[in-house]
Known about the structure:
CATH architecture: Alpha-Beta Barrel
CATH topology: TIM Barrel
Structural class: alpha/beta
Strand content: 5-15%
Shape: globular
Amino acid sequence: MSFAGTHTALVTPFKNGAFDREAFESLIESQIAGGVDGIVPVGTTGESPTLSHEEHSEVIQTAIECAKGRCRVIAGTGSNSTAEAISLTREAEKLGADAALLVAPYYNKPSQEGLYRHYRAIAGAVGIPIILYSIPGRCGIEIAVETVARLATDCTNIVGIKEAGGSVERVSQLQQALPADFEILSGDDSLTLPFLSAGGVGVISVASNLLPRQISALVRAWRQGRVEEAVEVHRHHYRLFKDLFIEPNPVPIKFALSLKNGMSGEVRLPLCEMSAPNQEKLRATLTALKIL
């Protein structure tokens, strides 16, 4: 199974503190109508750290039931506890997820050997494909190129990586060290086009919550050789890509969705609503790009 293309890192809608299933299903339908290749429930954008285990399973199950095989479902199942990550990944596999996305363990800052053993243990406990997720800005550590290469060699179901370290050069470094069929996905919307040009195969996107058709068109155009079309989509939306991160994700994208389709912008503490100046900045960008 290839994971090339556009996958949306879904927000988890809340209403009065509880998971809003109806809004979530509506969001998924908009993603499928927009042509995305897959959806990613309960990742960083889905506020996984503040979901209970029961909610975590409910959100994944809802995504699978709503998708009905019309797109891939990659469940976020990472944790800084290996035992918990194994439990979450087994549950996602049992529910029918197509793959699992596992962020590097955060806060406890393991060595590269510890990272290797963490992912090897998870891969050995399940049969579904696993996509690594390296985001040192949030986790405090990077999954080293050498560690990714060891895992790709030793674990047949570790098939790709979501790369969110902000370095296009690392795409080339990974390509040099990894088998040709190991897939590299951008974890930053503003770097999707540069990553594709360096050999990446797609994106796990925040912006596609709002713009599924446009982000899918960018990736599809590049992969089909329509370079100028892909560049134009990137240029047109670059300002938005940056402004969606003026405050911690997913606060800005939830605010944008509240303006666009009325979904609640509610987030869970310790996240909180955007400051008034940043709300106006993002609103101005959305208006200038004719999204509102």
